[in-house]
Amino acid sequence: MEAWTVKFLDEAVPEFVQLPSDIRARFQRIFRMVQDEGLSALVMPYARPVKGRLWEMRAKGKDGIARGLYVAVAGRRLVVLRFFEKKAQQTPQDEIKLALKRCGEHGL
């Protein structure tokens, strides 16, 4: 079986780096799960569908809660479009719109 890979859009790299270290570590654990077990590893509480092909990856740490918005694409790739710290109960529409815009700009 071909392994899954996790890629970040260039715009998502600085967003990831700015997250608290414990939350980054949780995301890295989720990335390893995807690489080891495939996309089927991303079930609640790790991920949930947001809109169309857009999914939300969830990480929680002592410093707060963060989300990574991603899509799965051909070639067994998970592409992270956006990282952000979550402040509200629901995922803000502006975050969803930005992720979808990035998805379109990169032809995903």
Summarize the structure in words.
The chain is α+β, with helices and mostly antiparallel strands. The protein has one domain: RelE-like (YaeB-like fold, 2-Layer Sandwich), CATH 3.30.2310.20. The chain contains three helices and five strands. Strands 1-5-4-3-2 form a five-stranded mixed sheet. β2 (47-51) and β3 (54-61) form a beta hairpin. The longest helix has 17 residues, at 21-37. The radius of gyration is 13 Å and the shape is globular. The mean pLDDT is 94.
Domains, number: 1
- DSSP strand (E) fraction? 25-35%
* First-last Cα distance: 23 Å
Residue share in helices?
25-40%
Order of helices and strands: EHHEEEEH
- Class, according to the CATH hierarchy? Alpha Beta
- In the sheet with the most strands, the strands line up as 1-5-4-3-2
| Rg result | 13 Å
The gist of it:
With 108 residues, the protein is α+β, with helices and mostly antiparallel strands.
Task: Give the helix/strand layout.
Layout: E1 5-8, H1 12-17, H2 21-37, E2 47-51, E3 54-61, E4 64-73, E5 77-85, H3 93-105
